[in-house]
Write a structure and sequence with these properties.
- By secondary structure, the chain is α+β, with helices and mostly antiparallel strands.
- The protein has a single domain, classed as Fumarylacetoacetase-like, C-terminal domain (Fumarylacetoacetate hydrolase, domain 2).
- It is built from 7 helices and 13 strands.
- Strands 1, 2, 3, 5, 6, 7, 10 and 11 form an 8-stranded mixed β-sheet that branches. A 5-stranded mixed β-sheet has the order 4-13-12-8-9, with no helix packed on it.
- α5 packs across α7.
């Protein structure tokens, strides 16, 4: 079978639309490169923009050593966040709109300035940050049963689906984001804890990596965008009736329910 960027992009868009997952791309195209996978993601982005959707930010995934080892990679991946993915704090998500949803808690960054690779540093990110917000990313896979390798999740927009943004906006002056703690509750039960250091040692390192990676594709991080630097703990499965709350201490909290 010959690899076709266009055909695989259409497969993934149909899977998202019709809620019918596809077989792992990595199993069908063993020689597929990560660059091929990013071009599939970018083709999907192009189609969604043509349909009237708006990019509101980007996300970094696979920032933990454990996840990188699981997929046999040595760097993160990224995806795009669109306007119809955003859910209000305390809002509700329909499980029927997703396939295999999981939730991750992250420290979201709102940029006050553009970040353009290829030489963006951790300090550049801090200087460009307008404020940070507590966020929940709902990840999902259009690949059947989460049987993914790196090329699968890259092509599938970093397995992203929804993002919930908390109300509190905190400037980073005087904050050590590495030591900011997070506790995650599912149905009032503590299910995960973490800290900012889980995202490549500091969330700003993850965002610097992203700005430099995007340069390879002629893309930049823009002022006003929401950037998710990676999860602070393992993803949690969610289903109908679940409620999720993540508390980030001085950064505030964020919540969502599933129906």
């Amino acid at each position: 079978m010959k690899l076709s960027i266009q055909v695989l992009a259409e497969e993934l868009m149909e899977a998202e639309k019709n809620k019918r997952p596809i077989a792992p791309i990595s199993e069908r195209f063993a020689d597929m490169s990560v660059s091929d996978a990013y071009h599939i993601q970018l083709e999907i982005m192009k189609q969604k923009l043509a349909d009237g959707r708006v990019v509101i930010g980007k996300k970094v995934g696979l920032t933990s050593t454990a996840m990188q080892q699981m997929l046999g990679v040595n760097e993160p991946d990224y995806g795009h966040l669109f306007d119809d993915m955003r859910v209000g704090n305390g809002g509700t998500i329909q499980v029927s709109d997703l396939l295999f949803p999981r939730v991750e808690a992250e420290i979201g960054f709102i940029l006050g300035e553009d970040l353009v690779g290829p030489k963006v540093t951790y300090m550049d990110v801090l200087l460009a940050t307008k404020y940070v917000v507590p966020t929940l990313e709902i990840i999902d896979s259009r690949i059947a049963d989460w049987k993914i390798r790196l090329v699968d999740t890259v092509a599938d927009n970093g397995s992203s689906a929804k993002v919930v943004v908390g109300d509190r906006q905190s400037t980073i002056e005087g904050l050590d984001l590495r030591s900011i703690g997070m506790v995650l509750y599912k149905n009032d039960e503590l299910v995960a804890t973490g800290s900012g250091a889980a995202a490549l040692g500091h969330p700003a390192h993850a965002i610097a990596w992203l700005a430099n990676k995007l340069h390879e594709f002629g893309i930049q991080l823009k002022a006003g965008e929401l950037i998710l630097p990676g999860a602070l703990s393992a993803a949690q499965n969610v289903t109908h009736g679940d409620s999720i709350v993540a508390n980030f201490g001085p950064l505030g909290s964020v919540s969502v329910s599933f129906e």
